[in-house]
Amino acid sequence: MPTPEVLSYAAGIIDGEGCICIPKRRKTLHRQGFRFSVVISVTNTKEELIQWFGKHFVGGNISVDKMRRNQNANPSWRWTLVDKSVTPFLLSILPYLILKRKQAELALEFRRRIGGNRHLTDEQYNFQESSHQQTQKLNQKGIRRAREASGNKTNS
User: Fold this and answer.
1) How far apart (Å, rounded) are the C-alpha atoms in residues 76 and 42?
2) Are the C-beta atoms of residues 107 and 38 closer than 8 Å to each other?
3) CB neighbourhood size of 23 (10 A)
4) How far apart are CA 50 and CA 79, in angstroms?
5) pLDDT tens digits for 106-138?
6) Domain tally for the chain?
């Protein structure tokens, strides 16, 4: 079990550099044609940071994207955690999360409520679709997101 210092540092990185989302992927084997899953990722140009996540949290995948838009840019490194592995990770960092707490709580509820993902009832599918849409909204960036978060919904 990671120390409180490691957990708080990981939560800070997730808050600032990470993403907690519930993507929707087309899957023809599923009744409704889609599959939802919880994904946590951290992307950074510093390999050391991504390797740190790999060292302290099992079940993650590390990849490097060497394709760059700018020739002078460093490669991007990514640590990704998917599905069942996300629950213990999120439960361990939840007390330390600030900015991504709502996404983490939504992801944990999603994991708690889903069973096998192949034969969903309409109610289960609707819950998963709603969770997907909520994480998309929570992860929006820019001025509109900042206004909505503060409760100010004017277009000025």
Assistant:
1) 10
2) yes
3) 15
4) 6
5) 999 988 887 555 566 777 777 777 877 888 788
6) 1
Beta strands across the sheet bearing 61-65: 18-21, 39-44, 76-82, 61-65
pLDDT digits (tens, 9 = 90+) for 33-89: 677 889 999 999 999 999 999 999 988 999 998 776 677 788 899 999 998 899 999
The whole domain housing 41 covers 4-148
> Sign of the C-alpha dihedral, residues 100, 104, 110, 115?
positive
Burial tier of 15 (Cβ tally within 10 Å: 0-12, 13-18, 19+): middle
- What is the residue type of 62? I
Residue 123 within a domain: yes
Report if residue 60 sits inside a domain.
yes
Is residue 154 domain-resident?
Answer: no
Q: DSSP string of 62-111? A: EEEE---SSTTSPPEEEEEEEGGGHHHHHHHHGGG-STTHHHHHHHHHHH
Q: What CATH number is given to the structural domain containing 93?
A: 3.10.28.10
Confirm whether 156 is domain-assigned. Answer: no
